[in-house]
Amino acid sequence: MAFILGFGGYVPDRIMTNDDWAELVDTDDEWITARTGIKERRFAADDQSTLDLAAHAAEKAMEDAGLTAAEIDEIIVATDTPEAYTPDTASFLQHRLGCREVPAYDLGGSGCAGFVQALDVARARMLLQPKRILIVGVELISRLMSWKDRSFCVLFGDAAGAVVLGPEDGRAELLDVVAGTDGSKTEILTLKTGGTRYPFNAESLASGAYQHLDMDGRRVFREAVHRMSTAVEDLLENTQRTIDEVALVIPHQANKRIIDAVGHKLAIPEERVYINVQDYGNTGSATVPFALWEAKETGRIRPGDLVALTAFGAGFHWAAAAIQF
Ligand code: UT7
What we know:
By secondary structure, the chain is of the alpha+beta class. It has helices at about 20, 30-35, 50-65, 90-95, 115-130, 140-145, 150-155, 200-205, 215-240, 255-265, 275-280, 285-295; strands at about 5-10, 15, 40-45, 75-80, 105-110, 135-140, 160-165, 170-180, 190, 215, 245-250, 305-315, 315-325. A hairpin with a 3-residue loop joins strand 12 and strand 13.
């Protein structure tokens, strides 16, 4: 059995509003609000890196769990915007936190589903051997994205979220995780340049291709609604629960319209769907763990609550998790 022993979340101080973006690209608050629901997002300071954000969230989660770094047995970091090309962010984090020489690895490239996928991996690892696993979702997208392409830049923000999983009967039991991938849809959301097929070179540098996200927004939208809602339905079937028993659904926060459509498909009232996209935008792998931490901190989750996390990401990946507080 796997329990969540501690929660952590962190966003940088710098606020970037829609009006701030309107000064840099051809956009306005009205378009961004109507199409996405986003009003502002946080961007890391120039001297912060992915590791700094991850460490803040991880330290909070360990403190919340009442554990020291020496008591962590494994580290998983979900990110698409790592500290370095190689090695992975988890290696840097292990050293920064002062953990023992325990296994540490990244789940990278799975877009915004990475953290919930990591919960699935961690849960399986705990079946082999009970241990305390630190899981972090972190993104510093503002550093790597194009600041010139209005179709993408207004959507994203920087953040980190973390949990510590353990075998002790803690505050929240991870009841089940479902996950899946449809690799036939890689082309609807992909940053191709920088890999071996399209290496980073002088040409991609000059054209800006190394920062260009190919995104078919409408197809991503449709897939996101379908996969996130179906994943929750699968969870409910596996755990023999009904949607009426779910106190809060925490979906990936890419777009308020996607979140509303998922709530509608699940037939769950709006007050039982967590929404913070207006304050932070899409923070990739950090979105779900940060929202989980924030929901707990602000009293939206109470003892006894059944909470469903659900996420989608480039791949096309999806994953959902049921947590009994
Ligand atoms: O991890 C990333 C996950 N990505 C997603 O979840 C994206 C899912 N999709 C969406 O959220 C929506 O499709 C978007 C928010 C990206 C776009 O909304 P939409 O209602 O699908 O708009 P659209 O793509 O049909 O674009 C409509 C218009 C276009 O102009 P024309 O061709 O109609 O003249 C765009 O050029 O809006 C224009 N546009 C903008 N206008 C003002 C695109 N970006 C902007 C902008 N400001 N920032």
